[in-house]
Write a structure and sequence with these properties.
By secondary structure, the protein is of the alpha+beta class. It is built from 15 helices and 31 strands.
């Protein structure tokens, strides 16, 4: 065997090293893609982790009377209970030791006794005690934090924002058997069902003198036209504008009490079926939705819905999976749209309204529970028994608002007329209902892709075929690099031009833009028909393959003619404004930054990619195939369609799919050239918001590890999967086309 020379050995070594480097590079790319995928998945998976409830056991906290109300401080370290007799107590949860205690009615006459206890909004930490002589007192818990010896110390106290003297609700002195109230710095309102069968409304406003800061209270009392003896439950919203009254037969009456002197009956409806009783009601955080628990273990959500005549009616929005026994207590979260429900069999359930989920159900040890409450941070709960014993629970429930329905289905959000797809991730108010529907963003992504491909694909593919097959080599050497240079143009520049130059131009010349879609092809066809009919002396002056140069002035003239005719048509027939005419004649709204503008702008960004790959595929068709086809009598057009195009079809298809993947992931153009509004509208004159643009806009403002943050990563994962599937499908189809036409 002949021994290889050093030069051959060096060449073989270089080949092996090159193969090794290429292999390592390819594997590294695959590993990088997998790492991106798994990182996205790692960030997203906590969204779908279930809630957990862990009991901390029963503890003793003796009370003078059965607790009617219980609350926790922000850190779930201190409990606050108010007994049915008006006595209150602050105690440490860890061991039940008393921190402060007293009587809400201590300043009243010794004969005054409490007959009804009610809590205001959890965020206000107010509690109301109604008396047997028709009066009510307002208390407010507060927690003062200090740091003696660098250790945090919380000192609880009970204040009286409206004085220690009870406020008169019933001038007749009738006992208050059921009350509901709310109070803030400016006013307090109390609704009360009296022992003599009346339903009364008291409103007290606080007025401070500008001269000596003297505080005075002004009261207004109103009797509502409803049988107070039939009232079983009362609830008032935190803004003191709405009152909900449930009768013993399950009929819900809804009052507008914005004007306390003249309450207005808005609606009256039965909230349970025949033979079913209402066991508890509570207002969800924000005070818009009412939760109704019944003796069948169900909790339903109701809120006012505006009809076509601008009138409000109560609607049952959703019903949650029932608990095994009748509902005993409902405890809403302080700030989120979740709540806890406890049934008479001792089953504690966690629910979230927007996600329409029952998150978890756990049995509790405490029995004869008289009060249930959630901590302000929703990370703990407490249940208090009639004998004063209490059971606390640690709750892990980071992302309750996420469910398949909330992400991809229609959701009936508060204050909306019907279920909708909505993305609205932030709000200035604490009672905001998260709206994390990915449907508008996904719709916007595909809408941008559709219109951009509709613009780019015909131009890029047909231009590539002409450049590779019909154009002369010297002209091709100029045209192809010029188009490829377009790919290096930053998309932020294209977005800037689209938003500040193209969008106003299209709005101003809307008729001309659409007219050019018809005029341009007609002008090119007319030029093609005219060219062979010109004298030979004229035609032969232009070398073969340079005919496209003559189309430049034709295209410019056609565009100019379209714009001029468009202006004439707009002034003559469309009242001088096409966008206004579309709205008045067909109800089609026109936004300046819309899908048409985005389609054109992204189309320009995608054209170089599709053109370059398609042109290479067409140019790579063996000359033997084209020459053989021409030799057999086929025309250049027949050869291009039936031989060249079929042979190059795998490459052209790959080019189109890669261009589509490029359009799907486009960010800056979509961000700058649309109204960036997450709406679902097929109207080409409306804007949208795409997944990529939404991530770019909101990721810098999202809180790390929050639900919003992780949902944005979920959007990125969806975008990743869509691009992966598109590219995979493209490769599968390309391989099939390659095998099919390999014999040509």
């Amino acid at each position: 065997m002949r021994e290889s020379s050093p030069r051959e050995r060096l060449r073989l070594l270089k080949d092996r090293l090159f193969g090794l480097v290429m292999g390592v590079g390819g594997v590294s790319v695959i590993i990088a893609i997998l790492l991106i995928f798994f990182y996205l998945l790692y960030t997203v998976l906590p969204l779908f982790a279930g809630a957990t409830v862990a009991s901390q056991g029963l503890r003793e906290a003796p009370a003078k009377s059965p607790p009617a109300f219980v609350a926790l401080d922000e850190y779930a370290e201190i409990g606050f209970t108010v007994g049915a007799g008006g006595d209150y107590r602050f105690f440490r949860l860890a061991d039940g030791s008393e921190l402060a205690a007293g009587d809400l009615l201590a300043a009243a006459s010794p004969a005054t006794r409490a007959t009804a206890i009610s809590a205001g909004a959890p965020s206000e930490r107010t509690v109301f005690a109604g008396t047997a002589d028709g009066r009510v007192i307002v208390g407010q818990a507060s927690y003062q934090v200090s740091y003696p010896d660098d250790k945090r110390q919380v000192t609880p106290r009970l204040g009286y924002p409206y004085g220690t003297e009870p406020l008169v609700v019933s001038k007749r002195g009738a006992s208050l058997r059921l009350i509901a109230g709310q109070a803030n710095d400016d006013e307090a309102s109390v609704a009360a069902a009296t022992g003599d069968g009346r339903l009364l409304l008291l409103n007290v406003t606080r007025q401070t003198s500008f001269l000596d800061d003297e505080v005075t209270f002004e009261s207004n009392r109103t009797e509502l036209d409803l049988d107070g003896g039939d009232v079983a439950h009362l609830a008032m919203d935190i803004e003191q504008r709405e009152l909900f009254v449930v009768s013993t037969t399950g009929v819900l009456t809804y009052y507008d009490i914005s004007n306390k002197a003249e309450p207005v009956l808005v609606d009256r409806i039965s909230v349970v079926g025949e033979g079913v009783g209402v066991t508890d009601i509570a207002l969800l955080a924000g005070g818009i939705s009412l939760l109704v628990g019944d003796d069948q273990g169900r909790v339903t959500q109701w809120f006012p819905v505006r009809d076509d005549h601008n009138n409000y009616t109560l609607a049952e929005v959703r019903s949650f999976a029932p608990l095994p026994a009748p509902i005993a207590h409902i405890a809403p979260e302080h700030y989120r749209k979740g709540f806890a429900a406890l049934d008479t069999a001792g089953n504690l359930g966690l629910f979230h309204t927007t996600a329409d989920r029952r998150l978890v159900v756990e049995p509790i040890a405490a029995d004869s529970v008289t009060a249930l409450s959630m901590s302000p941070r929703a990370h703990a709960a407490i249940a208090v028994s009639a004998d004063g014993r209490y059971e606390t629970f640690d709750i892990h429930n980071e992302h309750p608002e996420v469910s398949w329905q909330a992400l991809w289905g229609k959701v009936w959000y508060e204050s909306r007329q019907e279920p909708e797809y909505i993305w609205q991730s932030s709000s200035a108010s604490a009672d905001f209902e998260p709206k994390f529907s990915l449907m508008p963003l996904t719709f916007g992504t595909f809408k941008a892709t559709f219109y951009s491909m509709l613009f780019a694909m015909p131009l890029a593919v047909l231009g590539a075929i002409y450049t590779a097959y019909f154009m002369s080599p010297p002209m091709r050497a100029v045209v192809k690099p010029a188009i490829e240079v377009m790919a290096a143009l930053p998309t932020v520049i294209l977005g800037f031009l689209a938003g500040l130059w193209l969008a106003p131009l299209v709005e101003r010349e809307l008729v001309g833009v659409f007219l050019s879609i018809a005029v341009l092809p007609l002008a090119i066809l007319a030029s093609a028909w005219l060219w062979p009919r010109l004298p030979g002396a004229v035609r032969h002056r232009l070398p073969d393959g340079w005919e496209a140069m003559l189309l430049v002035p034709v295209v410019c003239a056609a565009v100019w003619l379209s714009l001029e005719l468009g202006t004439l048509i707009e002034v003559t027939f469309l009242d001088g404004s096409a966008s206004h005419w579309l709205h008045t004649a067909f109800g089609i709204t026109y936004d300046q930054r819309n899908s048409l503008v985005v389609g054109i702008a992204i189309g320009f960004a995608v054209i170089p990619t599709i053109f370059t790959i398609s042109e290479d595929a067409v140019f790579s068709v063996p000359r033997s195939l084209t020459m053989g086809s021409l030799a057999l009598g086929a025309t250049p057009w027949q050869t291009a369609v039936r031989v060249v195009l079929l042979t190059a079809s795998p490459g052209i298809f790959s080019a189109v799919m890669i261009g589509m993947g490029r359009a799907v992931g486009e960010t800056m153009i979509v961000l700058m050239a649309t109204g960036n509004t997450p709406i679902m509208d097929l109207n080409i004159f409306q804007g949208f918001r795409a997944l990529s643009a939404n991530i770019a806009v909101e990721m810098p403002e999202s809180e790390v590890d929050s639900t919003h943050y992780r949902v944005l990563f979920l959007a990125a994962l969806v975008l990743f999967m869509v691009t992966f599937l598109v590219n995979t499908l493209a490769e599968v189809v390309r391989q099939r086309l390659r095998r099919k036409y390999a014999s040509l």
